[in-house]
Write a structure and sequence with these properties.
The chain has twelve helices and ten strands. The protein is an alpha+beta fold. The protein is rod-shaped. The structure holds phenylalanine.
Length: about 350
């Protein structure tokens, strides 16, 4: 056998071995290993090609050509396999990364909810709009005229003291209640007038049951012939709607400069009056059986006079007014007695009051 025949057979064998190896690779990395083994600098085939120059001149041509053809064939096999493998890997990835867009989303954010003061505010507003009242807003920075004088609250009244009230200047304060809107509303609107005015108010107080900034809802009804019975009926309907059930309310004599007579309104303790936890043990009323919920009364004639309009002359119209603290209503409904918790905004607390 001539040298060149032996060489051609060896080339043939190497090509077949390479083809078999290429075919069994399953990853790009494996394929690269095979490429280095069959075509790399130390591989047999390239070295055989170099040996072609030592053949007799007549044999060099065919031998060289055969070896180059083999090399080309192996390179093609490598390229084809590379394409196949990358296609297979791509397909595998597509299957693995498949997204089912029809599945429900995984919840990432906790549900939000209204703050207990906001929801109580809205509940109160809902009850009164249901009874035919309109809702007004007022200003938080108010003149002493509307906050005190027009409300029959004389210059020596203790509520005017700087220890109780935030003064912006001599005759401007942060309103200490929503009552200034009584006179403002009557100045603007004609009777009959049925309005509630929710909003922020300010007092120099800070402990478990008093905040320097809190919320009130003022109520005002003016029309010829309104009596204290109308006040009682309105607030009874309110109490039933807010505290639920067939509970009773009572009027207790009190004093406010801007109402005459003045009353405080108590609601029967919804926690203990049906008997199951009574006496001193009731944590809500502490055995009193009544809970104070708001101040109210017949509008004092001096307040109607301060409006200065013929339509509101005390001989022509009468009315009632009331004012309640939103925090107090929320506190009674939730049974959580420390108001400071309501403004700390600890989510663990707020979540319990949704
Ligand atoms: N403004 C009074 C308060 O803040 C409440 C009130 C309003 C009383 C209307 C009577 C009439 O305590």
């Amino acid at each position: 056998m001539s040298e060149s025949t032996a060489l051609l057979e060896r080339v043939q064998a190497l090509q077949e071995a390479a083809a078999a190896q290429i075919e069994t690779t399953t990853t790009a990395a494996e394929l690269e290993e095979v490429r280095v083994a069959v075509l790399g600098r130390k591989a047999e085939l390239p070295n055989l090609l170099r040996g072609v120059s030592e053949l007799p001149p007549a044999e060099r041509g065919p031998a060289g050509k055969a070896a180059n053809v083999a090399r080309g064939a192996i390179e093609r096999l490598l390229n084809d396999r590379k394409a196949e493998l990358s296609q297979a890997e791509e397909a595998k990835k597509l299957v693995a990364d498949r997204l089912d867009l029809t599945l429900p989303g995984a919840p990432q954010l906790p549900d939000g909810a209204l703050h207990v003061i906001t929801s109580t505010w809205r509940d109160i507003e809902d009850v009164f709009t249901g009874l035919g009242f309109s809702v007004l807003a007022g200003r938080e920075v108010e003149s002493t005229h509307y906050n005190f004088d027009a409300l029959n609250t004389g210059p020596t009244h203790p509520a005017r003291a700087e220890t109780d009230t935030f003064y912006v200047s001599d005759n401007v304060v942060l309103r200490t209640h929503t009552s200034p809107m009584q006179v403002r509303a009557m100045e603007i609107y004609d009777p009959p007038l049925y309005v509630v005015i929710p909003g922020r108010v300010y007092r120099r107080d800070y402990d478990a049951t008093h905040l320097p900034q809190f919320h009130q809802v003022e109520g005002l009804a003016v029309e010829p012939g309104i009596t204290l019975s109308d006040l009682k009926g309105t607030l009874l309907a309110f109490a039933k709607a807010i505290f639920g059930g067939e509970l009773d309310i009572r009027l207790r004599p009190h004093f406010f400069p801007f109402t005459e007579p003045s009353v405080e309104i108590d609601v029967a303790c919804f926690n203990c009056t049906d008997g199951w936890v009574g006496g001193d043990r009731c944590p809500v009323c502490r055995g009193e059986q009544w809970l104070e919920i708001l101040g109210a009364g017949q509008i004092d004639p001096n307040v109607l006079r301060a409006v200065g309009r013929e339509e509101y002359h005390p001989e022509r119209v009468q009315g009632f007014a009331f004012g309640m603290g939103i925090e107090r209503i929320a506190m009674l409904r939730s049974g959580i007695p420390d108001l400071r918790l309501y403004i700390e905004n600890d989510v663990r607390f707020l979540e319990q009051l949704r």
